Amino acid sequence: xxxxAYVIFCMFSLFVIVPSSFAITIDGAISSGEYSKQTxxxxxxxKLLWEFEGEKVFxxxxxxxxxxxxxxxxxxxxxxxxxxILAVVKDSQDIKVYDEWSSGMFGPHAPDxxxxxTSDVLSYAGSRxxxxxxxxxxxxLDTKDKYDKxxxxxxxxxxxxxxxxxxxxxxxxxxxGTATVEMAK
Length: 185
Ligand code: HEM
Known about the structure:
Blueprint: H1 2-21, E1 37-41, E2 46-53, E3 56-64, E4 69-73, E5 82-91, E6 94-102, E7 109-111, E8 123-129, E9 132-140, E10 156-163, E11 175-182
Antiparallel strand pairs: 1-2, 2-3, 3-9, 4-5, 4-10, 5-6, 6-7, 8-9, 10-11
The structure holds protoporphyrin IX containing FE (HEM).
């Protein structure tokens, strides 16, 4: 009887527990329900989706732009003292990702590794179809890098977003903004 209960439990685990703990696939495509949290900026031209899994956060950006895209965390004023992830997605095979820190209100922002910090993107993928770009990445909620901000799993958190006019990452954003977001919604 005990064996039968064990077998039933194993089958349940395979079909129910395992799939739900691997809901996110970092593949540059976003399926319905893949991320449980989302918000949008710039009248929907820049969507941010996210999901927490253990000590990690998974984030996705869907934006309408021919250019680079970026999401940043907890700036003080404009861009100052902010942790940001900048992605240049030409197509699914040609993606450049930078884990950066902006020291001043209008930059400069430089890769954390150039300041003695660490590059903390754990996995990423993206795709582009015309001017619609998708970018997904994961990182630890708290990387312990002094050039990263810890991401809370609940409560309000200041997010910044931006996208460029082209794939030249030194070109100033076409649009950018900040918003206070409820992280657990
Ligand atoms: C690529 C080089 C960049 C340059 C030269 C630049 C420059 C500037 C400047 C001059 C401003 C002042 C407002 C304005 O003139 O629009 C600004 C604001 C801002 N930037 Fe950047 N920036 C750059 C990249 C980024 C990146 C990667 C992000 C990441 C999210 C970002 C986020 C912001 C935000 C959120 C604001 C404030 C917008 C607002 O509150 O209206 N910037 N930037």
